[in-house]
Amino acid sequence: MQPLILPVLLASLWTVCTRAGDWCYQSQFTCDHQCNGPDKWNHANSNCGGKYQSPINIVTRKTLTDERLTPFQFNNYQQIFRGTIKNNGHTVVVGVPHLSTISGGGLPSTYKAVQFHLHWGKNGGPGSEHTIDGEQYPMELHIVHMKSQYNDLTTALADQEGVAVLGFFYEKSNSANRKYDPIINSLRSIKATNTNTSLLSISLTQLIPSEQNLTAYYRYKGSLTTPGCTEAVIWTLFENPIPLSMDQLRVFSELKFHDGNPMVETFRPVQPLNGRQVFRSGSAVILASSALLIATIATALGLSQPN
Ligand SMILES: [Zn+2]
């Protein structure tokens, strides 16, 4: 009987110390605060241990071009709205009026925008959830949409293709991106968890690259990247990043988790592909390969040699 006592004791302690639904990022885990980090999210919700989880690392040479991945139609993305930005203890989230929709882009239906939120690193360091050929960008924007026939995310998540998330990477730029001033200026008012403030006039268009720069993207099927980790998401990751200055990126690290510690490294580690295929739109990756081709031709013609 003796060997059984320890596991039973540990199991009962485990139940006492963790509450269902409690989860945290790895950056929040300390010896004093042993919260459920990403490797234990399946304790909070068994979906998190599923086969088709997100985020993933995209290996570009293993992606397949899919001609059906045509440009998106963005409807009412330019609509200016008054939003509320909230620190919910895991991220900052902005609810979006359900009037902005996306279609095309190889999606099976029209999807309407519900909310957007971000994932970031520490003081502008690596912070995106998805990675491209192992590269982690400083931040990632998720614009969450649901099929237009649904009225709430919970219902949409019961449909395997109920949710479409548009993901955008950020890159460091030398100058500030003034289109982000409303969001970045609002952050100082919502440093504490469960606080919110108004964004007086904002549009989705102002947050993302111009439409002609959104034709190159990756597509795969996965999940929410936070518990419940529901596998009901059609993922789109755009190749062209959004520029933000180092100062702008740093402001996100001034936000606080509920325990008062800096809200940093708010990303889930990449998950196994488990045989999934990642597709790319016709124009993805060509940006990089055409530059290489031009350089090769220039070298062959001797154009790169000084006279
Ligand atoms: Zn997200």
UniProtKB/TrEMBL annotation:
GO terms (molecular function) for this protein are: carbonate dehydratase activity; zinc ion binding
Which Gene3D superfamilies does the record cross-reference, listed alphabetically? Alpha carbonic anhydrase (3.10.200.10)
Its Enzyme Commission number?
4.2.1.1
- Per the UniProt entry, the signal peptide is 1-20
Catalyzes what?
A: hydrogencarbonate + H(+) = CO2 + H2O
Q: According to its UniProt record, where is this protein located?
A: Cell membrane
Q: How does it sit in the membrane?
A: Lipid-anchor; GPI-anchor
Belongs to which family? Belongs to the alpha-carbonic anhydrase family.
Q: Assembly state and interactors?
A: Interacts with SLC4A4.
* Protein name, entry field: Carbonic anhydrase
**Species whose genome carries this gene:** Lates calcarifer (Barramundi)
**Taxonomic lineage of this organism?**
Eukaryota, Metazoa, Chordata, Craniata, Vertebrata
Q: Which gene encodes it?
A: ca4a
